[in-house]
Amino acid sequence: MKNLSLKLEDDIFLETEKIVTKVKKNRNRYINEAIDFYNKLHRRRLLSKQLSKESKLVSGDSLKVLAEFEKLNDGD
Question: Distance (Å, rounded) from C-alpha 16 to C-alpha 28?
Fold first, then answer.
């Protein structure tokens, strides 16, 4: 586990303290879970952007392949 020095804005710190008290969770665990959640959120967003970009790259080829399949079906 890594030690980290962190500066939080006062309002974020105060809200965090209120929440960790209510949910009976230590501050370190709470911050670790929050960062883990945020990392997963951003990983999904990055993956979505990548999939969208790659989909656009192959869309022209996909239309050509679809047209070829339609030609094959028309020959039945």
Answer: 11
Q: Which helix (H) or strand (E) holds 32?
A: helix 27-74
CA angle 17, 23, 12 (to 5 degrees): 25
Per-residue pLDDT reduced to its tens digit, 30-64: 999 999 999 999 999 999 999 988 888 777 777 77
For residue 29, the number of C-alpha atoms closer than 13 Å in the C-beta half-sphere is: 7
Distance CA 52, CA 49 (A): 5
The type of residue at 38 is Y
Q: Nearest CA to 7 among 29, 31, 24?
A: 31
d(CA 16, CA 8): 10
Q: Model-level pTM? A: 0.67
57's tokens: 């790259």
